[in-house]
Amino acid sequence: MGTGTDGHVARDGYGEEVARRFREVNGAHPMTAADDAYVSAQFTPLEELCAALGRNADEARRQMLDGLLPLPGYLRSDGAEMVPYDLFAPTEEAGGPELLRAWFTAHWEDSAEGAREWSAYLSGQYVCLHRVTPATIRRKDELTAAITEAVRSPGNSPEWSAALHALVDELDGLEPDFAPYDRLRFGGPTSRDTCVDAVRSRFPRP
Predict the structure, then answer these.
(1) Angstrom distance (rounded) from CA 56 to CA 51
(2) Global confidence as pTM
(3) β-pairing verdict for 74-75 and 2-3
(4) What confidence tens digit (pLDDT) does each residue in 31-88 have?
(5) N or C: which end of the chain has fewer CB within 10 A?
(6) Cβ-count burial of 186 within 10 angstroms (0-12 exposed, 13-18 middle, 19+ buried)?
(7) How many angstroms separate the CA atoms of 156 and 184, rounded?
């Protein structure tokens, strides 16, 4: 993959198919300059990651299309497929791409829930976590559920406030800031908006 004279990435191999799949999943929302700046700071182009690791980028794209790797988290305005720096870490921990699904879904006792999380993982939409692993996915779900339950019936004691902010602080540590683009593709506020920023605004620390 090179860069064309218009500044856009010129895809070859499976690149166009990955881009089509990405838009099928996320919709055709344009990336703004603010989006590009955010994702360039938080993620890395697939080409650069593969070059640094001695991997073949087009083979990684084929694995994405075959359901063996998650899709990119974002397509930058120049067409670069932006992925997390640890994209291949779960595959390596699982023992190879063919073993990834079984390793991943085994982290959930409910096989149906594991299958749903696997599908969500492959979508590339777990941009809500600094590190995307079964453990962080499960912990995020636990924290958002606990925060939502806590603010549904708020208390007025220092102990209640301290417990709530401990949950919010932990979630804050797991999640990045999100891009403005995310609120378009997810059709509304992000979990950071609802479970971190809004909660801190509504329930200030004592």
Answers:
(1) 7
(2) 0.88
(3) unpaired
(4) 999 999 999 999 999 999 999 999 999 999 999 999 999 999 999 999 999 999 999 9
(5) C
(6) middle
(7) 36
